[in-house]
Design goal:
elongated, four-stranded antiparallel sheet, 2 domains, 12 helices, alpha+beta, Gyrase A, domain 2
Length: about 350
Amino acid sequence: MNFVFPSVELVDEKDNFKRIEKAARVCYQSDDKISEDSAFPFFQRMVKRGHTSTLEHSVVFVRTHTPEACMKLKEILSSYEEDTGYPHYIRHSLWDENDTNLYFPVDKEFEGEEFPLGRCVGSEYLFSGNIRAWRKICEKYPGESILYDTFFDHPAFNDIFSKYHEELYGLRRKFDPVYKKEDIEIVDSIPDDFYDADKHNIITLKIIGDRGVIDEFARHRSCGISIESTRYCSYTDSGVTFVFPWWYEKLHDDPKYATAAGDFGNRCYDTEAAYQDWMNKFKVPQMARGNLTLWVKSQGAFTATVQQWRDILKLRDSAAAHPDAQRIAKMIEKVLVEKAGIEDIWGVKNNE
C-alpha cells in the first residue's frame, strides 16, 4: 500500500509521435518501454488497434497561401460536418489579422470552368488540429486533391492515401499535384508573436490525483485525454496507491480531520486487501478493480490549447469547484507559468 500527493508534470516534447507515446503510455503505466526509436511503431500500433484517441496528443499546423486553397479546405471541413454529423475539430485563423482584402476564388480542380468557392477575407490562413482529427477528414475524403497533395508525404497520413490510390489506380503515388507548396503546406510551428497563438499551440500535462478528481478533469472533452487503465494495469506487485485528500493537511486544524485520517487509513487498507484477494483468486485486473475506491491514485495525460487550459482553470479553480480540483488547478497554473512560459495565463491581454 502506497500514498502520494497530487502532482502536475509538463510533457516538454515537440515531436508529435514522441508526445503521443509519452502521453498514451500513461494508460498502461509503461514508460519503461519508451526508447529513442519506439515512438513511430507505437503510433502505428495505436492506429492498427483503433486506439485513435491517443492521437489527440498532437498538433499539425497547415498554412494556406492562396484564397483558393483556404476556401477549398473550408469547404471540405464544412462537408465533413454535414456528411458525418460530427465536428471536425480543426481551428483556423487569418494569418495576418490586418489583411481584410476580399477574394472570390474558384475551384482549381476544374480547369476551364468556374466553380466559385465563395468569398474569402484575406489571402493566407492557419489551420490546426490533432492527428486524429486530420486523419478522420483524410479518411472521409481521400480522393480530394488538396488533402492528398498536402498530407501524402507525412508519415502520420501516408497509409491512408497509399491504400486508397493503390486500390483505385494501382499506383502508390499520384503525379502532377493540383495543390503545391505555394498553395498550401504543413508547417512545423507558428511564430512566437502570432496574434492568435493561444488558439493553436498545445500543451500536454501529466496529472496525478485520485480517481474522482481525475474524472472531473476528463469531463473537458475538447482536450486530448488518456487515463491510467485499471482494466489493464495490475497492482499486485507494486501495491495499490492512494492519494492524500485535501483535508489531510488540515489534521491539526480540526479534530474531525484527525478522526477522518484514521478512517481513511483503515478504508485504504481494506481496499488493498480486497483488491489483492480478488487478484489472487481470479488474476484479472478488470474484475478486481471493482474493489477500488475513488481515493485510488490515477494518472492522466491531458493535451489542450492554451486557450482551453484557461477555460479549464476558470472552472476548476473557482470557489464552487471540489477542493482537490482546486488544488490541482493551482498546480496546473504554476506549471503553465513557470515551466511552459505562459505569461498571460488568464488571458488578460486578449480580454478573455
